[in-house]
Batch of 2 targets.
Target 1
Amino acid sequence: MLEVDNLSAGYRGHQVLWNVSIRVDAGEVVALLGPNGSGKSTLMNSISRLVERLDGRIVFDGIALHALPAHRLLGCGLSHVLERHRLFPYMSVLENLQLGAGPRAPRRAVAEGLDRAYGLFPRLRERAGQMAGSLSGGEQQMCAIARGLMSRPRMLLIDEPFIGLSPHMRTDVAAALDRINRDGVAILLIEQNVAAALAMSRRCYVLREGRVALHGPSAELAAGGAVERAFLGRLDPAGAAVN
Ligand SMILES: Nc1ncnc2c1ncn2[C@@H]1O[C@H](COP(=O)(O)OP(=O)(O)OP(=O)(O)O)[C@@H](O)[C@H]1O
Ligand SMILES: [Mg+2]
């Protein structure tokens, strides 16, 4: 469904990603792991066209995203929940959610989207009129995920959804992501915690210094400690391309 092929990208002459290839199939949960600064957010931001591509291809559902104007992305079925949620702090929860549906969404689609959002996170209904910036960290994450779902995506890109959350809130957000996935939405997830990422995903990619150091089925990688070795930069010949 999503295919990133030999992507190189970076910031004004500072190249961060080198020939990165990943794929996410329909309905899958795929985790993106790697040490700080390894390029995880840059990769996700390149997919959603926030970072300029130097080379390579990004194809989603047969559409060449790399050739699409960034403002056309919203309608194509892909939604990105940015790192640290990035809501509009001085707008209400409701207004933030409405914006997620896009400027041309029919009123009925917005109403249905709100119903789904409040079904998933009942707390947002109670807070609908409250300014988003005054929500707790966990509530802001819920609001950001709900906003990302308002456009009815078939794939959600989500950057570190658990950062700064209490264990209780982590459980709630993980349960919501599981429900979203069971409703048929594929998820590409960035997560620092190796054990949590492997437990939540079907396959995973480990980035190191802007390159894919390891990838394979999460259950297999969880067993051998290969992910931890890839973090430390010891490439594992046996596990380097289990897929
Ligand atoms: N806007 C930017 N301008 C210039 N360099 C940037 C920018 N954003 C990120 N970088 C650089 O790109 C590299 C990769 O950063 P990125 O944020 O993609 O890593 P990450 O794997 O998401 O790290 P973390 O786990 O800390 O979130 C880093 O060296 C970072 O300094
Ligand atoms: Mg990051």
Target 2
Amino acid sequence: MVGVVWQAPSVTNSAARLVAGDSFVAARCGWLADVVTGEVRPDVTVVFDGDRVADVAAGDAPTPDGAVLDLTGCVVTPGLIDLHTHLTGEVESGSYGDILMESEADAALLGVRNARRTIDAGFTTVRDVGAFRAFSDVSLRNAINKGWVTGPRMHCAGAYITCSGGGGEVTGFSADVCVPDAMRFGVADSVDEVRRAVRLIKSHGADLIKVIATGAVLAPGTNPGAPEFTEDEIKAAVDEASNYGTFVAAHAHGAEGIKRATRAGVRSVEHGSFADDEALALMAERGTYLVADVWAGDWMEEEGTKSNWAADTMKKIVDSTETQRDAFRRALAHGVKIGFGTDSGIYPHGMNIHQLPKHVELGMSPMAALRSATLWASECLGNDEVGVLEPGRFADLTAVEVSSDIDGRSTSVDEVLGDLSRFVTDMRHVVKGGVLAR
Ligand SMILES: [Zn+2]
């Protein structure tokens, strides 16, 4: 890759020979951001055993025979986790008309492109929280796991559980337009229908359940502030999900919807735009994660203004962006657990990393922001194989360049880890399972 200039004698890769798909037996890291201890450790060797970490050792520790990845000019973090993606979709014009003009094959191929863009952005694991074409995410996950396409490890929701005409429906068309069944798979209007939807969604291979508890910003005719399911209906989803050993992520903007979802026992509240202090205190008490897409509003406001998105949609974007950021700051004060999630697909895929410095701007320390996208995100997923570089977990990592003489800049690790904006501009390598993805 361009920009790799560090060539310690003990390492075997060179800038010219590095190719995506190369596998390594170890990585020599200039610095390791240790998300467990909170320390930044200099001169660390991460030794791999196949796709797993075998050892994290100080200095030039011995490595098995094979190629060693030279990251001595970089600060290394565990592979990043985005808890809120939609890899098989992308709303390009702020309108759901786009979705109806795409076939199932289009969604699949779009997913292939987006999976590549997402791992290139540093994200080796995602929680994909709903696809308009039911189970297109599950197919993409399976293709990645089989090695057909390159992309992050995926935890999939399969489809949205939403009420008729709710925030998870493809809305905005006249009443006589028939939206395809595949886009209405999880529509449910009672406790029993919610249970049925959970069972069917699980049987088709979903890893978790996504419930739309309030209206949505981009769904015409729905109100993000308004609750759309009763507490009993959400609780039915939580109970049924737990029968399958999994959990519910609840889309909820409005305070009442957040409280119902939290009392019902969801694992995470997505968005949280209009959370009041009572809702945040309840989330802190119950250990409910807040996964708030606090960067996407910047992109939507800019793009929507430029491209003349519908006035109704623009008003909802403007109304929710700053209130969400205020809620995020107050959530930190309440001690709510924060998970990193960007809602990729409402902005172009591959820009996920822009949200990392936003977490710092809104009051998190840089190490806390990194934890929200690694350690804490893995806890929210219930996945102890990712999120930390330690023996037994997957050998997934990102490397951000600290110093380069290519363009005459010289920087310190403190500067890179200061506000995390260098993660946007200077990410050099991404490794998934010991294999170079970027
Ligand atoms: Zn979303």
